[in-house]
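User: My instructor asked us to take a sequence, write out its structure as tokens, and then describe one feature of it. I'm not sure where to start. Here is the sequence I was given:
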Amino acid sequence: MSDLLLSLDAEVGDVAAQLPGAAGLFRRHGISFCCGGGLTLAEAATTRNLAPETLLAELQALADAAGATAPQDTPALIAHILDRYHETHRRELAELIALAEKVEAVHGDHDEAPHGLMLLLDDMRDEMEDHMQKEEQILFPMMRMGAPTLEGPIAVMRDDHDRHGEQLRRLEHLTRGFTPPEGACRSWHALYAGVRKFAEDLVDHMHLENEVLFPRFEAA
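Assistant: Let's start with the prediction itself. The structure tokens for your sequence are:
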């Protein structure tokens, strides 16, 4: 069962949080998926003088390519998720939280200081750690054993992913699209570059689970 349904009625913010590469595509077209995230694809395209069908086709191309290089064997796919995403998130979030604390402390009087970024990243780390532990200790072992359907546990994971998507919108807002102000120090640039990579990785991670792994254990 796929959560991602591309249509002109889909909201920009939802697509940005679920489809790898969509955020970058929206940025290139000047479409905000933070403050303007509640617009439908059709509305957003119209505001940028872009044919809605063109935008939809570009997004569909991203959807067709997403996950194409992931391992097809389920145990190998799980191993890939654990190594590429779980361990990477843990390592990078610890570094980003420390860097956000530094930037907020040093540049707190700046008009564009990302006040609240450290707390948001810390909340995300706690929630994601709980989520990943449930996968590592319960869901993934059951998948490796060949359980036929796991709709209940997967529904919980999908709900968590929805929450992560909301947090990604807040990251985009707090960092003004991951764009440091003119004259920002190297630490500020490094922070936003790191947060942007983390956000893009998380979208890739959730898409791989939502659209490739989870449907294998849900009723058609």
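For the description part of your assignment, you could build on this observation: The CA atoms of residues 31 and 47 lie 8 Å apart. Try explaining in your own words what that tells you about the chain.
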